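Amino acid chain:
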Amino acid sequence: MRQTILILFLIAATSASLGQGVFGEYEYISPRPGSGNHNPEATIIFRVGERVDASTIERSAIRVTGSASGAIEGTLVLSTDGETVVFKPRAPFRYGERVRVELGNELRTATGREFPSYEFYFAITEESAHSRRQERPTTSSAFGATPAQRSSVNPIPYPIVDVNDNPAPGSVLYLNPNSSVPPRSGEYSGWALFFASDGSVRKQRDLGAARGELTMHPDGLISWGEPVAGPSLRGGIPVEWIVADTTFAPVDTLQCGNGYVAEKHEVRLLPNGHALLTSYVPMSVNMADSIAGGEPNATVEMDVIQELDAEGDVVFQWRGWDWLPIVGLHDRTTESQFPHLHLNAVEVDRDGNLLLSCRTPSSIIKIHRRTGEVLWIMGGMMNEWNFVGENETWAPYYMQTQHDIRVLPNGNYTYFDNGDRDRREWARGVEYAIDEANKTATLVWQYAHPDSFNAPAAGSMQRLPNGNSFICWGWSTITDDAAITEVTPDNRVVWEVRFPGDVFPYRVRKHAVYENKPVYQTSARLGIGDSVSLGEGAGVRVALSDAATGDSTTAGIVREDYAPLLPVFQGDAPRVAPYRVFLSASVGDSARYRTTIDLKRFPKAAVSNHVGVFRRETPNDGMFEQLPADYDEANHTITFFTHATGAAAEFIVADTAELPAVVEVEGQRNDPPTSYSLERNYPNPFNPTTTIEFSLPEATTARVAIYDMLGREVAVLADGRMTAGMHRVEFDASTLSSGVYFYRLEAGAFNAVRKMALMK
């Protein structure tokens, strides 16, 4: 503990001497200056909060020296966000060494501002303290393969629907992650289901050892966690995240960087192409120096959040122990092994910062997504908020070992309250009205099951588009209670289901995408010059500008609140918001329509002049093309002209801000590679040929294969023994149809996948 106190002192001293925030004139630096216990695979991340002039990326902009390694060589990379610079050492740091970083002023922003000179230190963990070191996984058994049916496992029992009284439209997305929670044996572990409100199963798949939430992301992709080798944990399971289409065909994998391994609780794919992952790290801590009765060799499971850019580079890393004390957050610090936070959910708030659901302290903690600073703590022993409408006998544990913090479009927070503490012991779904300026949370809605059961772990709450609440009761189901309940705003139960046998839910969601049911659907008769808002909730206004035949038409609008699945574009893809709008009309192509989208009704769309509208003639097929459009910043609307036919054309909104390419230090490719890598193909999109490069640090057997969206192998570009160095292969897709394809490199234990688009 003396070492921890010294580290915190160094951090405070560094910040105070600069007098301009945590990192001086820098918006963000990682590792945090003065911090310790970093993995040898650590990278160095920094940004000043402006776009970088990519032409100024030079090796001389950073000097890194290890107390044992000496001068550290590496590569500077500009992230796909255009702002964050990452230094990647050519070789891992050495255990126990102290690292000195000198940032020079050679870099410039796009406006010509110099990066300030800055010097800081961080420390690499001791090898003896890292005996349970996490090894980054290099393989995924899921990609391009159909998991074998386990002969000892029967198909998962289907759900039993007890109530089905006009629930919200949609199919339920469910994964049974249980291995052996008593009294369960884990017989049906790893089965995934899509099922309808009547209990009929639309799709099912045996995902083997899959863990965590089966998540649907805004772009229509789904993900699950596949267990990998990692540390022994009480609160989590090390995984690699598999990203797949709705046929369960994997299209990508996600894993933490900097030597950390992802864990099963959360993965979020963000609209800008980035991803949020979490990790748990067991560390040996002498708690006897900090608290009476503390264990001198306690194992504390620490929490890590990472944001990966579109190329998989870590551009933001937050380690809980760098920012929050171990003592004072909760009352478990005398145990021999305990979680620091037990982070079980991460949500992006409306201001772009991150909300963390932390089970151990029973707190919601908000951190600054750009700097990592802790902004406030809601609930628990370090509570900073006032609660209105709650039972004061529960204070300060108004929320109890909660899960699944989420933000509604109106700014309210919802979460699943497990109720697993003294003085209550019953679970509920909760909604708070939030006054962040005054730190006041007002209880505006809650639902507790009439059977008053608690949920020792897991659980979720989802607010559906029609206002209903969809509550998964987590581990309460180990006693055969209700697994999922859907209730109206006035707490009337309209749907409830149980799972028989060896089944329990971790989190469960309902999605309208699998029934193709729109959120809004309406039509109206239009005359030339008329302007009609087609559905107040749809946020779309249409006017008939001119028509070749007649002077009126019937126009229709359909809105669905999810993005198209893997949309295809000419050139670089924009960041697509989770909405689709279909416009149809009774007049042919010669008619023009002036259409205005009120982006205030599309809260997850970009809020900038980079927002654009894209159209394709046939829904669910073909390439999207951007339309000329006018953005009204004052009213946050976008207006465009288009034609419509009897068959509805499909429109989407997206962030069109340019994403600069990764920039590497000149000459780096001439150096012998020190690690395996699979590069982006070029050009991309392509027609009909493209080039794929990869590096091998040693002679080995390597294989490069191409897969379609269903995971079927369509070509093998290389397969055999290869020398160490950079390699290049060409892919000729003349015989294939347009679409998204994936290329995979297998070399020894290394396995990597990237995607590309064929445009004919």
Notes: Helices lie at 2-18, 320-323.
